Automatic annotation (TrEMBL):
Record's keyword annotation contains DNA repair: yes
Motif extent (Important for interaction with partner proteins): 149-154
GO cellular component term of the entry, any: nucleoid
A single GO BP: DNA replication
Name of the protein described by the UniProt record: Single-stranded DNA-binding protein
Gene3D superfamilies membership: Nucleic acid-binding proteins (2.40.50.140)
Keywords carried by this UniProt record: DNA damage, DNA recombination, DNA repair, DNA replication, DNA-binding
Biological function: Plays an important role in DNA replication, recombination and repair. Binds to ssDNA and to an array of partner proteins to recruit them to their sites of action during DNA metabolism.
Start-end of Gly residues biased regions: 102-129
Region (Disordered), start-end ranges: 101-154
UniProt gene name: ssb_2
GO MF term set: single-stranded DNA binding
Length: 154
């Protein structure tokens, strides 16, 4: 099983580009704090994140340097030969779901929980397509759902 769930802050703005056939791809680096400190100082890992398609466009729109994000995806390794003929190995996280957390005073990017919670998210795998937070028909709805016991899967 190849699954990674990360929570961290962007170290710089998202880099957005498109493939030759027009597919969006964005990359960014996520600083993820380590659980233990080294020599009494906080330590972090800086992980390269790759996001594809519509989710990449959403990330480019909403994520900026310093913004906190949760990333769910898989670890991928690849290698290539550089201009000097040396083999270069790269390890990165291919995001399948990105949740934009908090806000730095960005207007329109809060969900009513003081900026702490899920905002527009999506994934490449097709289970959810990205979109605005208001696309969720159950958002901020505290009413009970009328459902019969026969409709429950358990």
């Amino acid at each position: 099983m190849n699954r990674s769930i990360l929570l961290g802050r962007l170290t710089k703005d998202v880099e957005m580009r498109y493939t030759q056939n027009g597919t969006a791809i964005c990359t960014f680096t996520l600083a993820v704090d380590r659980r233990f400190k080294r020599d009494g100082e906080p330590d972090a890992d800086f992980l390269n994140i790759v996001v594809w398609s519509k989710l990449a466009e959403l990330c480019a729109q909403y994520l900026k340097k310093g913004r906190q994000a949760a990333v769910e995806g898989r670890i991928q390794t690849r290698n290539y030969e550089n201009n000097e003929g040396r083999r270069i190995y790269v390890t990165e996280i291919v995001a399948e779901n990105v949740t934009f957390i908090g806000g730095h005073g960005d207007s329109g990017n809060s969900n009513g929980n003081g900026g702490q919670g899920q905002q527009p998210s999506g994934n490449q795998g097709g289970r959810r397509s990205g979109g605005s937070f208001n696309d969720n028909p159950f958002a901020d709805d505290q009413r009970p759902i009328d459902i019969s016991d026969d409709d429950l899967p358990f």
